[in-house]
Fold this protein.
Amino acid sequence: MPVAFLTAEQRSQYGCYMGEPSPEQLALYFHLDDRDRALLDPRRHDHTRLGFALQLCTVRFLGTFLADPTDVPYSVILTLASQLNIADPTVLSRYLEGQMRYDHVHEIMQVYGYQDFASQPAHFRFLRWLYTRAWWSEERLTVLFDLAMAHLIDHKVLLPGVSVLERAVASVREHATTRLWQRLAQIPTPPQVALLETLLVMPEGERQTPLDRLRRAPTRVSGPALVQALHRVDAVRLFEMEHLDLSFVPKGRIKALARYATTAFVHNLRQLGQNHRIATLLAFAHTYLAVVHDDALDLFDVLMRTASSQATREGQQARLRTIHDLDAAAQILSEACQVVLDEAQDPVTLRERIYARVPAEHLQAAVITVGELTRPPDDTYAQELLGRYLMMRRFLPTFWRTLEFESTPGGRPTLHAVQFLQRIEGRPRASLQAAPRAVIPRSWQRYVLPRNTSAEDGQRTPRVDRPAYTVCVVERLHEALRRHDMYVEPSERWGDARAKLLQPEQWEGIRAQICQTLGRELTGSRALEQLGQQLEEAYRRVAANLPTNTALQILQQDGVDVPNLDRLERVEEPESLRLLRESIGASLPLVDLPEVILEVARHTGFLSQFIHVSDSHAYVEDLDLSLSAVLLAEACNIGLTPVIHPEIPALTRDRLSWVRHYFLRAETITRANACLVQAQRDILLAQIWGGGYVASVDGLRFVVPVRSINRGFLHTPPKRVHRFGGVCKNPLHGHPLALGHLSSGRGRGDGLRSGDADRKFLATF
């Protein structure tokens, strides 16, 4: 077990200052709130207050107390001295006299809830978290060590000695890894274990082990290379490990073991312990079937794209070579057509006049030339692609035998054709009259279904050309694979695109919650019944109003009555509506956006939901003002600089950085959002309009569990005034919560573009 995995430099950086803290760190960790000042103000001497503040901020920043509390960068001393109004920071030298600094350590631990590393239950919780992290992730020891330090600091647990934490991280990770190997080694049966061990055995007369051959990916693009890739699929499938249930093991750990098996030397794998070796080989065999499937289908994709591009290029070049012959033939036909279209010509002597202008043999040759050189509009150079049939036959027998395809409903015709070719593979005289024909597109029908004259009945009957049908199906298979209409399992790149969607049993578990959120019925039949009733009511209402509906016009088109769906003319607004709008606009005050936030907070109290990440008692004066400024800065994507006012204590850079780091997070935003939704539901007007089931704010929805037939999506085009206020037509109209009705003409963020941070801010409304 690697106990000492830290370098000498990393050990020297543990639990101490490394250079000057950045301005952001000074603002986050060395800002004194009202609670801190309440502890510092009663102390009489400047050196006592400054030393106490240094120890408090040091334990916040480093997670430990220093043996010499004054051994800190000078910028830290100046930052704290300026907040405490201490003009002479040199008084700090007196702080080391006596035992006062040790008393301060105990006081800070008691007041702020810091615990020793060995104290319970903090120590047990830390080991449980560390074990969970080590079990679910394959992180290096140094990364896990850094994460452990951050976890201890966040949970106010004093950092132990570097060797103590180093041993704890190493031992927990070793225990998790050993348990993983043991559980994986118990899964395969003895015959399967013996088969896995053969991967590391050098066959007699060979220079490579089976593992070396299997983990070598294709390097050439050719039919024989694809055959070799398909043989790898057969070889990996012999282990029959893909059907084992490894759901109890994190997928990341399985992939990490398989990745080690693909990169390590075989000699090193042989020297592993029994459980470790079996677990590694098991992970390789279980994971690598998807890898070899991906390699084979990647090679098939490259071959088909190359063949298609070459066929297209050959067709274009052939067309360029024959363009002069086609032009000459078209010119001859044009001359003949001019005679035909001349209305002054006598129909009786029309043929003689045509032959007089264009000789019959020239006209016949022109018709043959045009027939041979022209292509239908939907032609995709299928004829040139048919020239690759022999190349495809090099790998198709192994291809059809090895791979098992599945499909979505959109790929069923292609799947049926592929299965038909798989059944008749190896039977050169098999009839193709029963071949599925739904897969044949229009551009391929002239090649796959050529017309011939039957000797028995003299009628033209279609027959299926096997090479053309095969090439057509292979091309359609390639297109379906790229669209994921067809897939192979297991596979990462060519697997079922629906696999990561909710499965039926998972959907049943959350169906009620999703349907309630979207305002939909639990069963489709009930929803269809409601929609049918609404449609019937709408139809009867329209039919009843049809005789008196002057806005509807019925026109005659081809003897059929159809409604006139042309755009209606604009209806002029009445003067009373204009006066009402001006009167309401004049009554609304012009306010800044921060004032809007503060007013909403006064009515709803949603800002009280923003609490410190680790200390619910942390508070500063005018915290609401600081939160309002931070929310505005996040919403407008403008950063903190535009909302900083050094002369206002609540709007200084240090205060705003501290608030943004410790108070604004997903948890507090969710609680604030719930507070606002509850306030909306309590509005009487919203209840009259249906309970405010859905309120749209720039595309966001707030769900209130009250049903209404009038609920639905509300949409308003974005405007400057409503950019940060949501939608005008919401149940909050006329209430202080209706931010969209408060003019932001003088707001600092008026007209600014809202981005991703805008969504985070608007979630609170």
About this structure: The CA atoms of residues 582 and 739 lie 18 Å apart.
